[in-house]
Amino acid sequence: MIWINILGFVSSDFSGGETRLGDSQIITDGINFDIVDGYCGKGATKLISALKKIGIKTPYLHISHAHWDHYDGIRKIIRDSYFKPKRLYLYDPSSLGDVSSDVKSEKATLRNIVFEAKAKGIPVTYLKNGDRVTHGDIKFTVFRDQPTKYNGNSDAYINNGSLCYWFNEIRYLTTGDAGLECARKHNLNPMIIKIGHHGNDCIRSEATWLKNHGCIYCWDNDYSAKLTDFLMTGREDCLAVGMKYFGCHGDINIICANKTGIIYKDGGTYKYKCDYTGKATLKGADLATVKATLKGTYGANNDRITNLIRLGYWPSQIQDNVNEIVKLVKG
User: Fold this and answer.
1) Judgement on whether residues 174 and 124 belong to the same structural domain of the protein
2) Of 199, 90, 220, nearest to 155 (Cα)?
3) Residues 97 and 235 placed together within one structural domain of the fold
């Protein structure tokens, strides 16, 4: 079984007008744990708290690109004595070149993170286009399309060069903060895509191509409810062509087993077919067991679903009883 947990947020997590906390994904097959990006600020704190709650001490760490809202939490994990990461994955900082002062600064930060990792005895691997990574049932191909020309926008230059991970068996594509072009350029057929959220030159035709090739679901971790010119997100393009969008208000959980992917979000269940043949390892639970398990736990509906999965139960067992459980916990 493969489980992907994207920690969600509520307005109380924010202060000072902050509208986003970057990206992070916890991906596990029950034995191996891959942490793809690490949020920033309070998001990084929440991620680390969750990892410790689960008891994840030896994760594989990944940085999709050289922006603080993605590498901050990873750096904090490296510095935290609780963790003993197995390996750090990122692209070679020198591949960014010296095109602007902002890019030079981010490149220097990545190099410092690499130095800190190696000083802690953590092996470091530089990923490039076409590389393949396997950790048990977690298998993905790396795509990276760093712009060959600098157009004067350091954010877009770094974002569009993000490491993208293609999980072929579960039909899932992560893009860091790159645009929507990866799938078409590399002839991929994702069912669900993690889209970039700012600083990209998104094109409606890319979203149309995705939808025409079977992509139904998308998510990003942009907290803003408004689609602004500043964000330049691919979200509005995906919505315009009829894809189902999941935002970061509350957790997103994706579970894949027996050639089926199941997305749990906002009390809803969304199923799709995939090629992954791993067996389901979660247990069934009747309502009484669920009530006993969840009594006194924290968070909104999706946080409770996350807790249930962490304890080894299928969240589908409670979908018809979410309201009753919410009343129980609130009471």
Assistant:
1) yes
2) 199
3) yes
Which of 219, 250, 281 lies at the terminal end of a domain, its last residue?
A: 250
Do 166 and 52 reside in the same domain of the chain?
Answer: yes
Residue 181 maps to which CATH number?
3.60.15.10
Domain annotation covers residue 14: yes
238 and 298 belong to one structural domain: no
pTM for this entry? 0.91
The range of the structural domain enclosing residue 309 comes to 261-330
Q: Are 90 and 163 in contact (CB under 8 A)?
A: yes
- In whole angstroms, what is the distance from residue 204 CA to residue 219 CA? 16
Are 175 and 157 spatial neighbours (Cβ–Cβ below 8 Å)?
Answer: no
- Domain contains 255: no
What string of pLDDT tens digits covers the 331 residues of the chain?
Answer: 999 999 987 655 554 445 557 889 999 999 999 999 999 988 899 899 999 988 999 999 999 999 999 999 999 999 999 999 999 999 999 999 999 999 999 999 999 999 999 999 999 999 999 999 999 999 999 999 999 999 898 988 999 999 999 999 999 999 999 989 999 999 999 999 999 865 555 678 899 999 999 999 999 876 655 544 445 568 888 888 999 999 887 889 999 999 999 999 877 889 999 999 999 998 876 667 766 766 655 445 557 778 888 888 887 655 445 555 555 555 4
DSSP at 282? P
Please give the angle made by the CA atoms of 162, 229 and 201, to the nearest 5 degrees.
35
Sheet order of strands, 268-273 included: 124-126, 87-90, 60-62, 33-38, 24-28, 2-6, 252-257, 260-265, 268-273
Token pair listed for 117? 């990792």
For the chain, how many structural domains are there in total?
Answer: 2
* CB contact burial 98-135 (16+ within 10 A = b; e otherwise): ebbeebeebbebbeebbeebeeeebeeeebeeeeebeb
